[in-house]
Design a protein that fits this description.
The chain has 612 residues and is mainly β. It folds into three domains: 30-40 and 48-67 and 86-133, Sandwich (Immunoglobulin-like), CATH 2.60.40; 138-507, Methylamine Dehydrogenase, Chain H; 521-610, Immunoglobulin-like (Sandwich), CATH 2.60.40. It is built from three helices and 45 strands. The strands form ten sheets. Strands 2, 4, 7, 8, 10 and 38 form a six-stranded mixed beta sheet that branches. A six-stranded antiparallel beta sheet has the order 5-6-30-29-28-27, with no helix packed on it. The longest helix is centred in the first third of the chain and has 18 residues, at 2-19. The protein is globular and about 70 Å long.
Amino acid sequence: MKKIFLTFFAMILLSSLVFAADFVPTNKLDIDVPDFVQYDFDGTPVDIPVGIDGTAARAYLIIETTGLAGTKFRVRNGRVGWHTVSGIDTTIYNSTGDDLAVGKKFITWPGVDNDGNAVPEGTYTYYVWAYDFANLFEAVNPMADYDRSLSQNRTLVQTTAQDGTLLPKPWISTVVPGYLSGKTPDSEAAQMWTRWSIGNDPKIAELIETSELILPEGWNHIAGAMGRCPYDPADFSNIYFWTSYEEMTTQKLRKFKLVMNDVAEEMTDWGEDLTYGYETTDHHSGGFDIVADTYLCVPIWLYSKSACNSYLLISTVDGDKVEDIYMEEMDKAAFVQEYGEVLQGGSPNGGMSYMNDTRMVFGSIWCFQSAVDPVRYLESGDYADFFVAINEEGDGFQDKGWSADNPFPDFCYAEDPPWNYCCFGSESGIVLSTTQDGGPTSWTLYAPDFTAVSYCAKAGETEMGTSGIFHLDTGGPYDGLYSRPRAWSDRREGFESTGITYLGGDSDRGTISKTGGVGVAAAAPAEFAVAQNVPNPCNPTTTINYTIPESGNVTVDVFNVAGQKVDTLVNNYLDAGSHSVVWDGSSKSSGVYFYTVTSGEFSKTIKMTLLK
């Protein structure tokens, strides 16, 4: 009997070991495109090679200008002026999607812009963004009831450790009311901070890390829970938390020191002036984030049937108030008062997503999508520098009532518009905005200047759509698309709640020009060579080696992902031969950068990563 029992126990143990396994994407997608594509700008089509690895993909081509950002200042274009760009390069062409099998394939640019016009000779940046459209999504975590915060960009995704190195397993963290956490809080006022490491076994809920956030009496989770709580850049054991008092007439930004699987400690002497009061209870705020490792930015809106006043509240990570920026483009009060039947699409209910070192994106609950650069505004003091891109009608996307003769260009002219609770900006500049209750559609793909490219639908999508999404694109093993099906607020009959899921997704980019130019690795003769910086990633210094075929003036410039020059390392006459220069990124934020070496007619740009 004892022998039988031991044998049975051993079988159970073996079974648990067999079925318990870390999450590893089974349909990871990787794409690769040439650094440089030569084109004569003669109006004929050109085939761009695309390497597809891992799984078949639906791929989109986006082409935008390069180096013309300074010529675009508050330019309004598109149908009846629905699209505004300021200080960024703009999209000239986008495809509507090509289904490509695994292997070396091609995606075709017809050689014209979106209006069918010839494109002037010059240097252009092209992007290929692709996702797995054929395979069903995979479970990533066990959070079935309380990961719903992903639906409004209120989930924080952390890919780097405090020292700037890549985390072996990226973190997903959020805050939820204690009763949704699956654990018993010490207080009814407790909010539960939770963290999941992507790569853990999705079946083992015990791997969820938690810390209770106890609020003073009368304070609650309404505006702050299910919230994206950024880490203190100087100490990842500290987080920032946005909270509400009773009827939401007062809100306060707080700072807590996390204590894993125990009660966190509030730093009550931090941010004493970061309390905000309002005359109306009709207001809300999306997730917030830290920009340039310095500024805490919280979007908030006060709304009614006759007004919608949107603000970006800016303070420092040290707890000092900086400025409350009134976003006047989102105030449509006069219009709504005159046309009461038109539902308003001008509040940042879609939350907010960090896009690069200074830029953030957020979208309305309906159609208004935008990108802002608060650092650029704070440096210049000119409000005209605040918005960098606005799409007031989604190019007809995410608007059930859109039509060519719609007289209201910046409103969703429908009684029941589709919801787009989540707007995510990736480091590449590509933006994804989820679509919910808009048919079997998962998200809308936007170019970096917020030109709408296409609706996208993952396999098995339902009429309810997708309520949250983010894209990891770090070069790591977990790169891809992470999303959550269904509307977070909807408990529909027969629907089984799910946790966050994975789907293959990737992007790459290069340069199109006639003879080579500034871009992502333009082609050049063998005598001209630029090597990958060493080390890469770097922290904070790295060496750039290059060879020039002829003596002459040489420049070595460093750009951020927005195409803004952040450093000039070399700008003088050099003899032919091999050279090297050291870049010190100690004053820069962690992220992706590009360095361009130019010598005469030759130029080459290579990507590098700064991880502190």
